[in-house]
Amino acid sequence: MTARRYSSISDSRWLRGASVAILALALAGCANHKKELTTGSVPSSASFSKPVSSMNASELAAAAESIGQAYERNPKDRAAGLNYANMLRMTGRNDQALAVMQQVAIHFPSDREVLAAYGKSQAAAGQLEQALNTISRAQTPDRPDWRLKSAEGAILDQLGRSGEARQRYRDALQIEPNEPSVLSNLGMSYLLAKDLKTAESYLRNAAGQPGANSGIRQNLALAVGLQGRFGEAEKIAREELSPQQAEANVKYLRSILSQQNAWKKLAKDDDKATN
């Protein structure tokens, strides 16, 4: 299917809904964002009652407060700033995360990791064009970073520039073949373009790679469910999660798939495109 831009109000609404579903399903498993903490002057795990990966929302908020205090004691501490911004994003405080990263970037204007984190914070806060520019500055031709290529692709997808986005994902895969997070991003790019069959193919490939996480499987569950295979989608959504996490993911999946008019239209358009 050839990707096209969508201008009607109804298309825009359900495309935004799909984007929200992708993010929410990934966050429900908490598989991606809790791996972002940087080593350095961040409170050790002993400072918390449990590992970050198993914290609930209130515990994450308390952990963010603790890391924030470390950052406030020394705003020039690079690791503390990166960790604090990551924790703020994990708890949905995107504007605060952006403010922190603006200050970190002032102190470390040429640091690739800082620029990458700054770009992610800009994107999370809705500053997409600025984010694309920041992440592009973090990339260097002689040492291309697949993570930055993938991040650029995600921003381009949000800007509706799907062709450019997919090229970035493929560039990332040239550097890091079969990287599951990049394959997943590529699959979701096709999902947002209503090409569900191609989306499922890439997402199945991603989910089958070593290191594939729960967020990737939830994306696959969404792609399968949007094609009407609800039982299979729920089975995928429950894989390798605690009962509580699995139930949260399935509940959210059901709420998205219950929007029958929007998703029936999605499936109908996909069938027309492939016939």
Describe the structure.
The chain has 275 residues and is mainly α. 70% of the residues lie in helices and 0% in strands. It is built from 14 helices and no strands. The chain has helices at residues 9-29, 57-73, 78-90, 94-107, 112-124, 128-138, 146-158, 162-175, 180-192, 196-207, 214-225, 230-238, 243-257, 260-274. The longest helix has 21 residues, at 9-29. The protein starts with 8 loop residues before the first helix and ends with a helix. Residues 1-46 have low confidence and may be disordered.
Task: Name a few traits of the molecule.
275 residues, mainly alpha, disordered N terminus
What class, by secondary structure content?
mainly alpha
How far apart the termini lie comes to: 10 Å
Order of helices and strands: HHHHHHHHHHHHHH
Major sheet summary line: none
Q: Average pLDDT value? A: 78
Could you outline the blueprint of secondary structure elements for this entry?
Elements: H1 9-29, H2 57-73, H3 78-90, H4 94-107, H5 112-124, H6 128-138, H7 146-158, H8 162-175, H9 180-192, H10 196-207, H11 214-225, H12 230-238, H13 243-257, H14 260-274
Task: Give me a quick take on this structure.
With 275 residues, this protein is an all-alpha fold. Helices cover 70% and strands 0% of the residues. Mean pLDDT is 78; it is low at 1-46.
